[in-house]
Amino acid sequence: LVKIEGKGGYRFFAEDLNISSAHRVRLEARLHRAVEKQEFELYYQPKLDLKTKELVGMEALLRWPQNDGSMISPAEFISVAEDTGLINPIGQWIIQQAIEDTLKINAQRQKPMQIAINLSVRQFRNPALISTIAHFIRSSDINPALIEFEITESMLMDKVDEARQAMANLRQLGVQLAIDDFGTGYSSLAYLRQFPVNTLKIDQSFIADLDDNDESSKSIVNAVIGLGVGLKLKVVAEGIETEEQMNLLSKAGCHIGQGFHIARPMPFDQLLKYG
Ligand code: C2E
Ligand code: MG
Ligand code: MG
Ligand code: MG
Known about the structure:
Residues 24-275 form the EAL domain. This protein is α/β, with parallel strands linked by helices. Helix content is 45%, strand content 23%. It has helices at residues 21-36, 74-84, 87-107, 121-125, 129-140, 153-157, 160-172, 189-194, 204-208, 215-230, 243-251, 268-273, and strands spanning 2-6, 9-13, 41-49, 55-65, 71-72, 114-118, 147-152, 176-182, 199-202, 234-237, 256-257, 266-267. The strands form two sheets. It has an eight-stranded mixed beta barrel, surrounded by four helices. Helix 1 (21-36) crosses helix 2 (74-84). Bound molecules: ligand C2E and magnesium ion (3 copies). One magnesium ion is lined by residues 59, 118, 150, 180.
């Protein structure tokens, strides 16, 4: 909550994640410098096939290391990067780096590993996105089916026709599409069928509540998995923190799992040595 002193006394604004405006201005300046100096890193979180327990993919997660050894969470700076437009150069770097790393890890593995890359709303709406991605695919010679872009429900429901067109353009490139944080937005199930998506990613809030003694949490998760399977989509659960959650999800027919119980996001070098 930011308190702004005006003529009529105080007004209160609810701001994103309670970042005060002074903090935000500082963050903006530092973000500009971070882009210039290429201070970002990509971490990767493994994704497992819940039946075979084999590694089948990884999600690229942006990290911004600080001088004191700490990291600023993307949850904090992505919205600032969005507002300033810095997300476009950052996003390009993410896609390029993720493709390079995917080619590297696939060169040393038998089974293909897919890469999931998050797109923010401004990237998704950027008319130049398609040609940028097409360029990276061509110049790297990666099989586009190895790339999955994650977009959230709210990005789809805002301007539905435009969103559908953007998705169709992406699919035309041969890449896959996932709906991230599924269940937290307000998309109608009727729309879901019309969007050319390959994957549903159940939001981690549903998984966090999941335990064997909680019938309602189990019903919700079962219903979402049933929906995904019924629509012939790949179903991914994120935020798996216990063995019990992993087993329940596997029994319920969820295809792929991701979470701290399996592995935390890690630097690429560490991923190369993982499983
Ligand atoms: P997301 O795409 O839904 O990513 C999942 C988040 O959950 C990640 O947080 C991940 O580290 C965290 N997570 C994974 N497993 C567990 C678990 O078992 N328990 C809990 N509590 N958390 C888990 P992270 O890396 O802080 O990213 C937060 C959000 O920031 C992401 O949510 C995504 O929306 C955004 N983001 C991250 N990287 C990028 C990026 O490269 N580009 C864009 N546009 N957005 C990104
Ligand atoms: Mg994601
Ligand atoms: Mg998510
Ligand atoms: Mg999330």
